[in-house]
Amino acid sequence: MLKSVVFVPSAPALVPELAGPGAVDVEPVRAASIDVLRAATEVGGGLPLRWFVLGDNVGAQSDSRLDGPGTCRGFGVDRVVSLDVAAGSGEPDAGWPTSMLLAGWLREMASIDRLIPIVVDADGATDRSAGSDPTVDAAASLRARLLETSDPVGLLVVGDGATSLSARAPGGGDSPQARALQERIDAALGNADTAALTALTPAECALWGVGGRAVWQVAAAALDGVELTGRLDYAGAPLGVGYTVASWTASR
Q1: Number of domains in the chain
Q2: How far apart are CA 248 and CA 57, in angstroms?
Q3: CA distances to 9, 125, 192, 207 from 44, in Å
Q4: What is the superkingdom listed in this entry's lineage (predicted)?
Q5: What is the rounded CA–CA span in Å between residue 180 and residue 27?
């Protein structure tokens, strides 16, 4: 039984060791991400939640494994993370997707024992009529895992918004069109508006550097028809990229 969905950015800067001591601009989004996930772990009616994490494959190496420890070495610091408290102490894998590195760090911060990973193609289509599309298949599989169980479950969704939101942006500066798109994304995530997330087009998201489209649309398709209450916990662009923290609570 689905209880909670938490949306956080796929931002390496959330990890203090990667951001450095001077990155005070990211402290609010870092705190919001940790606090919201911690709060979501407490809604299981006294039972521990079984947590899934949904992220894209950006940064992944083809031979990477998520069942042991991973490392943020690719971002300049050998910060070791894991998706499971029982992952062991083997050689950390440097080929994890960025989304899973962030998830592993957040798991530790929120004291969650295990996150079950679901990794999708960042460029996946979302036409539900295309039954062979892997993104559609991922949504159907995720829906079954979230809704067809009596155990309380939670879903962590990791994805970034638009670039070009300020002069600091890697996407090339401040764009009114990018800001308008980010406002739509923030509203959709904050209001649990699955239709609005589904309506995001690959073209507009690619144009303005939106990294989270595929995972948001997989989550939206998986939860189609579920009664959800949304809350926007943080929306900002401290580094010129749209970072959104939001939480959805299922009524059923």
Answers
A1: 1
A2: 24
A3: 24, 33, 20, 40
A4: Bacteria
A5: 24
Nearest by Cα to 174 from 185, 182, 163: 163
Answer whether 243's CB lies under 8 Å from 160's CB.
yes
Q: What is the distance between the alpha carbons of residues 95 and 66, in angstroms, rounded to a whole number?
A: 9
Which positions ≥6 away from 162 have C-beta within 8 Å? 171, 178, 179, 181, 182, 185, 205, 208, 209, 210, 241, 242
Domain coverage including residue 103: 2-250
Residue 97 in contact with residue 37, Cβ under 8 Å?
A: no
What is the model's pLDDT at position 125? 55
Cα separation, 65 vs 138, in Å, equals 19
Q: Which amino acid is at 189?
A: L
pLDDT in tens, 32-81: 999 999 999 988 766 778 999 999 999 999 888 999 999 999 999 999 99
3-state secondary structure of 145: helix
- Which CATH number does the domain housing residue 164 bear? 3.40.830.10
Q: Which strands sit side by side in the sheet containing 2-8, from one edge to the other?
A: 115-120, 50-56, 153-158, 2-8, 243-250, 228-236
